[in-house]
Predict the structure.
Amino acid sequence: MRNVREKPDRRAHAGRLCACAGGLCPLLVGFLVGMSLSFCEPALAGEASGEVRSPVRMAGPADVQGLFEALSEEFQKSRAESGGGVAVDYVSREGAVPAARELLGGFDAVLSWGGVSERDVLDLGRPWEALAPEEHVIGARAAAIVVHARNPLDTLSSEQLEFVFSGEVENWRAVGGEQLPIRRYGLASSSPLTKSFERAFPAAGSDGIIRRPTSADILRAISTDPGGVGFVDASSVVTAGGAVKALGVGGVTADVQSVKDGRYPFADVLVLYVSPDASEGAKGFVQFVLSGEGDGVFRRHALLPTLRRVRSDAIAGFYRLYGPEIERVRATPDPGDDLDLAMRILKSAQRLPPDDVQLLAAMCAAAYELSENIPGGETAVFEVLNLLSERIPGRRLDSAEKRVALYERAYRADRSMHVGSALIDALQAHAAAATSGRLYAEAAVILERAKEVAEQIGSPDLARVRERHSIAAARVRAERDAWVLAEWLL
């Protein structure tokens, strides 16, 4: 019998909460019950339909089981009208070889941190080579090094970071910074990100580190601590706006491209292997994951929702058509031809069928890269972000983040009322996108930045921004208190 982790009976969970309601605050209990019942909706809808679908059989690390169960729920919600959603039956298997053997044994898909190595292939033998599963790098767990925005340093070497996090260096002056004591922040010792970071820097587990429960808490602490430095999940850094900044490691910062090409040292990639014999339901679920529709779920689980591979025939056709011209305009000093090509690619992307989201994402990425850093490219960049938000719901949060980054750049150069107000609007839209993705702590941090900018420029909307921030912060506190209480009750 397989060692399948039993899923909790969520309706029973809700019932136990109701039974305890007598001595508790009705509002808090209602919140808890509402959350519990909301998790039940996909399952109950499936029961009501009377249609039985085989679940997607998956195996992989225990620390991403919750991620894939949440992706399954999102998939079922997104396909509710068509009835195409399926559940995920997940088996915990640590290590690439144990997971791969499940794929050989008939599973639809398996996951592994770092993927199947050449040595693993030798262990698995000819059956693995004969199966020839599809391989997709679907995301990454990356630790970004963050400091206060006013810290003059932009990068440190790995050796310098080791000195900082071990406590061997206690003042920023020793690594080229200001005369200021260093305060080190980190996540709980049990956090998967902490364990990953400590594999690179064992000294990061020293007693001198100030522990915080979430990356948002660390970002909030460092935003008011000029001597602070910490490691957080890279997907959370953009939510801090201009209050903190990420340090490079040997000149390389944690972003999608540096993780993808292996230049950034503090990252583990998550690799998905799909059997050619996978069920149709499983293939639909994999397509959902690869399309980017579940990006918000990745972020809620502190992962960079990146690195997905575009359908091979589509990307090959795109590069046959535009690849040589992209290389040509990049080689010329005139930024005008870059912008012209970006707009042509964008207009072609706008004419794509609504369901061709992978090719759309690739074309938008090319147009964005061509126009991002050239004079007059802002219009093209914003059109790209609007198109992604409209066509791919899972990219709305990413698009909102990029809009904020553009306005932050403009605000650093021009702290006028006009530019500041545009930044505030972008921050509030970003917070709304984070809230819709249930990233409540991140939304509170974003609105804190909006409040800061509103105070700096004397915005007439300051009272409204303060009120939204207050509501968001109260929601975060209530959510934490509710889950602590739920744990205690159960």
